[in-house]
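Reference record
================
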Amino acid sequence: MNHSRGVSNSSTARPRPCATLPAVATAAVLALMTFAPLGTPMVSAAGAASAAAPARFAVPDWTLRTTDGKEVGLHAALSRGPVLVSFWALWCVPCLKELPHLDALARETAGRLTVLAVNEDAPRSVARVRPYLQSKRIGLTVPLDTAGDVARKLQVGGSLPFLVLYDARGTEVYRHLGYHEGDEAKLREKVLALLADSAVVAAPTP
């Protein structure tokens, strides 16, 4: 809401206002032109900050609330190492078959890989997600993408299950659509190979 103030008709002299922002900015530019050596490129403060802090990860960030009420973000997870993002829903039978394998993989690679099982159920059915996970004793971190924003951002489409594996730089190294028995073995192979490569890169030079 905009609030307007009444204008006073008093003729009392008012103090002269400070220099306006455009005037201050002009003075700053003149000072830089005066003291900077000839040929020095003029870079704004915002431009300098942007140049000094390039994008850290190759994939766009996103943040969602999980089934236990916490917030989880992709970049925050990547800052700890490689990340596996899986998209699933309760109405997707292959998804429900894949979940226990993802849970086992998450337990096996705990501390080296973050597994985020992003749920795509609609708001009217999302209340059943947590009870289902508890009944199956699945301990995965499950962000709730009820609006489908993250799925659209990553161009998942309407087919589930869908998963993407990222290295610690946010570079996609593997993706897979659907689930058939035996797919979990290939995924595990991809994950362990990535973790082995990451360990070699992180190993200190003797």
